[in-house]
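Reviewers of the previous submission asked for a worked example of the structure-prediction workflow described in the proposal, so we include one complete record here. The input consisted solely of the amino acid sequence. No template or homolog information was supplied to the procedure at any stage.
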Amino acid sequence: MLQEERFLRIRTLLSTLSRVSTERIAQDLDVSRETVRRDILALESQGILRRVHGGVVAQGPEPEPPLAVRQAVREREKRAIARAALQLLQPGQTLFIDAGSTTTLLAEALSSLSGLTIITNGLNVALKLAAADADPARWPHRPCRAGHARRHHRGRNPPLPRRCGPALARGHQRAQRRHQL
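From that input alone, the workflow returned the following structure tokens.
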């Protein structure tokens, strides 16, 4: 087996398990421990993994904390960003709002405006906007494609149009049951 192929298989093991013993790598690749040791040293020098006693761990950025945790961090600054963004908007504009903690606060602030077309892939953003849409004359009903909810990110794919009305509530309930949000 070529070195590049071994590197790929070691990276695949790490992406699946995040911690792998040198013995497991040797068995899975059907190579000697010396070959595994050399491969680990090479991959460590590339910053792909880190050696630990008995094996390796994936090296990379820490996973992003869940939205509920991020929501509480620097909330005052996030609200200030939302207020500043609000000043830039005018009726008739189309706005795409991504999923996130700051954008959820922006969606809250948008309840004071009307006449915008808003597209979002953020479930929390869509829920905030739908809650502000109590007056059907203010926001005409638009079709809603539910997409697929991603558990900790609370984003949706494909993007979700703003005025989803009852379809949004039904889709959110199904997502909660399916993903136990």
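Helices lie at 3-17, 22-29, 33-45, 67-72, 75-87, 101-109, 123-132, 165-179. We consider this example representative of the routine output the project will generate in years two and three.
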